[in-house]
């Protein structure tokens, strides 16, 4: 567990995207969990969308968010598995200026404690695009809880030491 300094907390401006061919916003417990968790932590929800698992729709939505000065962080849930429709990694990688390899690695490591070897079927990933950090996680609510509580909650807090992602995103 990291350290926190005496710095004043600065809320991040975060957008949440759910990728699903079967859910509606009303049924989106994963996206709703992320919205609740980020607002409870003191961050600001800038936008929220649910779209089908389509490479070009994902790129269009995320490209608009990346171009916006109003959004610093994008959280994507869904589309990271191995079915023919799971295309989040393929949609996001071309947008990245730089990949954050450690996010997927750490996500699978902490997931292993919860779901064992099934974690190898997760293609969780993250990267930076135009000063926006993009985190892609599986579509299950439990996976989103794991990602938030074990990684993102600390890494999106500007007070977390020895380092966090906030100095690397657009102001």
Helical proportion?
25-40%
Number of strands: 8
Query: Tell me, what is the CATH class?
Result: Alpha Beta
Uncertain segments: none
> Count of DSSP helices?
5
Q: Major sheet: size, sense and barrel closure?
A: 6 strands, mixed
Strand portion: 15-25%
The CATH architecture term is: 3-Layer(aba) Sandwich
CATH superfamily: MoaB/Mog-like domain
| Outline | globular
Strand sequence of the main sheet, in spatial order?
Answer: 3-2-4-7-6-5
> End-to-end span in angstroms?
26 Å
CATH topology: Molybdenum Cofactor Biosythetic Enzyme, Chain A
Series of H and E elements: EEHEHEHEHEEHE
Domains counted in the coordinates: how many?
1
Radius of gyration: 15 Å
Summary of the model, kept short:
This protein has one domain (12-161): Molybdenum Cofactor Biosythetic Enzyme, Chain A (3-Layer(aba) Sandwich), CATH 3.40.980.
Would you kindly provide a written description of the structure presented here, covering whatever features stand out?
- The protein is an alpha/beta fold.
- It has one domain: MoaB/Mog-like domain (Molybdenum Cofactor Biosythetic Enzyme, Chain A), CATH 3.40.980.10.
- The protein has a six-stranded mixed sheet, sandwiched between helices.
- The longest helix has 15 residues.
- The chain is globular and about 45 Å long.
- The two termini are 26 Å apart.
- 36% of the residues are buried.
- The model has no long low-confidence stretch (mean pLDDT 94).
